[in-house]
Amino acid sequence: RCVEAFYIYFHAGRVEEPYVSITKKRQMPKDGYTEEIEKEVGQAEGKLCTHRSAFSRASVIQAFLGSAPQLTLQLYICVLQQEVTVARSIFMVLSLLSIVYGALRCNILAIKIKYDDYDIHVKPAAYLCIFMWRSFEIATRVTVLVLFGSVLRIWIFLVVLLNFLGFCLYPWIIFWLSKSPFPENIEKELSRLGTTIVLCLLTFLYAGINMFCWSAVQVELSDPDLISKSQNWYQMTVYYIMRLMENAFLLLMWYIYKTDFYLYVCAPMLVLQLLIGYCVGIFFMLVFYQFCHPCKKLFSSSVTEAFLSCFKILYFICQHHKSTLLTGKVAEKSPENTDEARGSSKTIDSQNGNIHQSVSSNA
Prior knowledge:
Subcellular location: Membrane
Region (Disordered): 333-363
Protein name: XK-related protein
Helix content: over 70%
Organism: Pardalotus punctatus (spotted pardalote)
Keywords: Membrane, Transmembrane, Transmembrane helix
């Protein structure tokens, strides 16, 4: 692909192309109006676009199935040896940049797939917000996993296994609940077994991405494109709340079971820094969706309104659960209260009777 892409690029414009294709894109709405623009795309430009999309997908695969495990392993070695060499630090920085770049490409691909009908222009501020968002999110996540794995080496396998199985099976469970037919139009040359293998590999990549950060591309097996094109704010809110709780729990377990090996580390300060770093990543994510998203004009509601509505729903659920518990406790205590009331009324009646007897005797 690289050789062919360079060959097409350097030979473009020298020979007149036999045919061109016409694509129609809509601009972002301005003052409530959208314009449709027609553009001629030559054969060479179309091939270059195909290669560029393939390179973007390959960078995502390489980042989360290659660089992410490599970064985790190198950081684990540094923690055990209590030393960060120059060569290892360079490799860790390159691995982190590779993961962040893959996550950034995943965000841009998700935007282009969801809003394929529109002509999208991503501004430098959007790239900067995505870079900061993914850098803080991935760096803190990898550090939390390494710290937890350094003190509880057996339990880290259970944490990783539960994360992978949960995210791998989630698209299949949604597909089974939707009762949609099995997707057959992925590739004409693939058999049913080949299609199943491709879908399993896709969900495996989806689980690998969600293991370290939020996957901007949501897999939906019932959709012909295998990708959900709706913006699900509720799902994103639940993911980040659960991930923040999981990181806090893993750090708490590390703090409880840490050995004398970590005497040189201020443990409370490190825990606080990691939690704040993850919250900073969430902050840059909110800034991106609120101000820098190239298609923010197409959102039915702003990100702040969406997240506030999600938090209100969770708050009402918690309040309803508390109210049911309180009513249950009141119902349990009600017979005792009635017995006490009856006993008190009997004592009052007896006291009144004694008073009447004393008054009559005096009379």
